[in-house]
Amino acid sequence: MKSADIRAAFLGFFESKGHSIVPSSSLIPGNDPTLLFTNAGMVQFKDVFLGDDKRPYTRAVSSQRCVRAGGKHNDLENVGYTARHHTFFEMLGNFSFGDYFKREAIFYAWEFLTSSECLQIPAEKLWVTVYADDTEAYDIWAKEVGVPTERIIRIGDNKGGKYNSDNFWAMGDTGPCGPCSEIFYDHGEEVAGGPPGSPEEDGDRYIEIWNNVFMQFNRSADGTMNPLPKPSVDTGMGLERISAVMQHVHSNYEIDLFQSLLKAAAQETHTSDITNQSLRVIADHIRSCAFLVIDGVVPSNEGRGYVLRRIMRRAIRHGHKLGQTQAFFHKLAAALADEMGDAYPELREQQAHITKVILAEEEQFAKTLDKGLTVLEAALADVKGKIIDGATVFSLYDTYGFPVDLTADIARERGLQLDMDGYDKAMDEQRKRARAAGSFKVDYSDTLKLEGQTEFDGYKTLQTKSKVR
Ligand code: ATP
Ligand code: MG
Ligand code: MG
Ligand code: MG
Predict the structure, then answer these.
(1) How sure is the predictor about 165, in pLDDT bands with cuts at 50, 70 and 90?
(2) Which of 340, 341, 363, 447 has the largest CB neighbor count within 10 A?
(3) What residues form DSSP beta bridges with 226?
(4) Is any atom of ligand 1 closer than 6 Å to the C-beta of 318?
(5) Ligand 1 pocket member 93 (CB < 6 A)
(6) Where is each Alanyl-transfer RNA synthetases family profile domain found (predicted)?
(7) Quick check: CB of 64 below 6 Å from ligand 1?
(8) What is the Cα–Cα distance from 78 to 84, expressed in whole angstroms?
């Protein structure tokens, strides 16, 4: 089953159950300064859940483009390392705004996955989780759907207290949230990993395919949880993950959507092994970069633009790692338009623009990439222990345009970490020098601020939470 057919089947199934098909919204959340990028299907419905916006329907279904490259849901560091995480992906979702609740949501999901009219996934390959104290959801799965209790896992308070666990979904630090019930697919014993809730759950064997969130609360900035006007449902299933299941492959990178991208990337970088990790990163990143450009983001030194720059520079660096010294990344916009242009005509309409924006970034980074890598290699040759010194990390950032996460990415490949305390110190000294010189042109404290938003903490996390990474 092709990805496009799965997408169509999902929309059609829920339409037949009285859901209105709603088009994907922009990756830039409209009027929501708390969120960096649209990271789930529910984002465009946030105000509907809160009761502040009314729609002519109480049931909706969508295939939403999502980016998770910063903020609460950030998978940038997972790309290239897991078979299931992308910076850009499509989320299939059905929604109930005060209409149906747990029982119907669970039954719909099960029917779509297992029935002979739909995906026909063998039931014994599926595992489910429920929030620790959600007996209602547990009983629906066990007694009504008939999932054997060995494959129903309660997950919750073990990971940092009530309402703060994997089975309590939240869009961001504030906003609609609630307990959830997730469905996992077992890719079989040839893949490493353990069932949800086990110490080995982080592998790619038991892959989470679908999250059913029972939206019940609105979390405010001070942490209080207020009940929503009406209990609602928000679900999300990664199209690429369900495609891997339906196409009988164990990695998202082996599904149809990625084949021509990987081939184009291989051709541009003269790489023969299509499973090469850098190729996968490049194929992933062209999707997020192109879609972000379509939605109006351009590479810059702050906020959303800086996240885009970070993604682009990572892709460019991976090309360089494959021996590519000429600009190559922009050329992949054509392969992407061929692959996804039917579903997203903007890719064709804006192909020239996307190509131009990426090429400009490649040309700019080309000016410093080689020199920066030489500096980094010298530091690596000289490294004491497992930590790259903060002054080098800062100079790579400040002089050579290496975002810290890019340096960290290279370090990780060598099993090394960055001295973030030293980096902070070097940054402080630079700021003092700039002030002493009366130059306020570059405000280093401001480079990553997104106006009014509270959630984007990708960089702050680097600097304050994990001092060494
Ligand atoms: P995981 O635990 O695997 O990181 P998640 O719990 O963060 O996933 P949700 O926020 O529950 O994911 O999102 C709903 C669904 O979207 C997931 O069940 C999965 O199918 C899909 N999904 C989430 N993150 C990604 C990603 N980075 N790339 C591709 N698909 C994703
Ligand atoms: Mg995740
Ligand atoms: Mg999860
Ligand atoms: Mg989840």
Answers:
(1) low
(2) 340
(3) 218
(4) no
(5) no
(6) 1-469
(7) no
(8) 9
From CA 273, how far away is CA 258, in angstroms rounded?
14
**What confidence score (pLDDT) does residue 439 get?**
57
CB within 8 Å of 313: residues ≥ 6 apart? 361, 365, 401, 402, 403, 406
- CA-nearest residue, atom 31 of ligand 1: 238
The rounded Cα 373 to chain-centroid distance in angstroms is: 27
pLDDT at 447: 38
Counting ligands in written order, the one closest to the CA of 202 is 1
Give the mutation target among 77, 208, 243 for probing the ligand 1 site: most ligand atoms within 8 A of CB: 208
Whether residue 68 has its Cβ less than 6 Å from ligand 1? yes
Q: Rounded distance, CA 265 to CA 190, Å?
A: 28
Weakest mean pLDDT among 2-6, 96-100, 186-190, 436-440: 436-440
pLDDT in tens, 60-96: 999 999 999 988 789 999 999 999 999 999 999 999 9
Residue 468: pLDDT band by 50, 70, 90 thresholds?
very low
- For residue 457, the CA-to-ligand 1 centroid distance in Å is 19
Atom of ligand 1 nearest to the CA of 73: 7
Question: What size, in residues, is the chain?
Answer: 469
- Give ion ligand 4 contacts, CB < 5 A: 211
Q: How far is CA 453 from CA 150, 314, 450, 457, in A?
A: 43, 25, 6, 10
Beta carbon of 241 within 6 Å of any ligand 1 atom: yes
Residue 175 or 56, more confident: 56
Cβ count within 10 A of residue 435? 11
Q: Whose structure tokens read 């759907």?
A: 145
Can you read off the two tokens belonging to residue 253?
């990178």
Residue 444 scores a pLDDT above 70? no
- What is the structure's pLDDT at 172? 78
What 3-state DSSP class applies to 419?
strand
287 pocket-lining for ligand 1 (C-beta < 6 Å):
no
Percentage of residues in the chain having pLDDT higher than 90: 80
359 versus 456: the higher-pLDDT residue is: 359
Of 457 and 67, which is predicted with more confidence?
Answer: 67
